[in-house]
Amino acid sequence: MRLADLIERIMDKLQDPSLDSKRIRRMINEIIDQAASTIPVPLPDLETFDTVSTDIARAYIPMPDDFHRDLDFCYSAAQNDKIKIYGSVHYLRMQDDNEGMNRSGIIHGVARAGKRLYYQRIPTTADTLTLWYYRKPTELLKDNDEPYELPSFCHEPVIVNGVLAELFSTIEDGIEGNKINTEYHRTKQKEALYDLEMFIGPKKDEPPIINDLLGGIMY
């Protein structure tokens, strides 16, 4: 569904003339971002990769600007090999006898914390790391924009119901007892997200790597 169609569907269902299309557009993008963040299995169309260069003076660098979730793979150009990803900076630090994160040497592991990528140890010459991760969903801005990262069958069930649940939650705030409209649309959205998870299936393994004779990377 196009952005204009999503907005029209929401306004038709809510029947509130005070609603502003810009507000609904913002909420639509927030719901898409929320769905991409919380679904247990990442949306396949958001998978991407980028390269970053390590800092010779510190043990961390920023993740790519479009990073959203799930660092799945790290490849070192200097070592021409993949690098182990640890579940936390604490576990990464423990691999070096729990000492500080300031020792020099080749990278033997990385860990992500928030928007930072930590590595141990610190290369004396900057290393180029190729990272595989899931990027942010594309923001819908124009009427003809479509949320193509989401399968079309869940555009209305996930997005429209998600926005309506948020709007009705405000409208029904303070009402005693069950918030009937809020709960209805929230339930429908959760059901659609579960269907989406089943449609995607289990998360795939890390990308296969072949080291060619020139030291490049082939996928």
- Structural class, from helix and strand content? alpha+beta
What does the average pLDDT come to? 90
Order of helices and strands: HHEEEEEHEEEHHEE
Terminal-residue CA separation: 33 Å
Give the strand order, joined by hyphens, for the main sheet: 1-8-3-4
State the domain count: 2
Global geometry? elongated
What is the CA-atom radius of gyration, in angstroms?
A: 22 Å
Strand content: 15-25%
Tally of DSSP helical segments: 5
Q: What are the low-pLDDT stretches, counting only 5+ consecutive residues below 50?
A: none
Tell me roughly what share of residues is in helical segments.
Answer: 25-40%
Number of strands: 10
User: How would you describe the oligomerization state of the chains in this entry?
Assistant: single chain
- How would a crystallographer describe the biggest sheet? 4 strands, antiparallel
Report what the structure shows:
With 219 residues, this protein is an alpha+beta fold. The protein folds into two domains: 3-43 and 138-200, no CATH class; 46-135, no CATH class. Helix content is 34%, strand content 21%. It has five helices and ten strands, in the order H-H-E-E-E-E-E-H-E-E-E-H-H-E-E. The strands form three sheets. A four-stranded antiparallel β-sheet has the order 1-8-3-4, with no helix packed on it. Strands 2-7-6-5 form a four-stranded mixed β-sheet. Helix 1 (3-14) packs across helix 2 (21-38), helix 1 (3-14) packs across helix 4 and helix 2 (21-38) packs across helix 4 (155-171). The longest helix has 21 residues, at 180-200. It starts with a helix and ends with a strand. The mean pLDDT is 90.
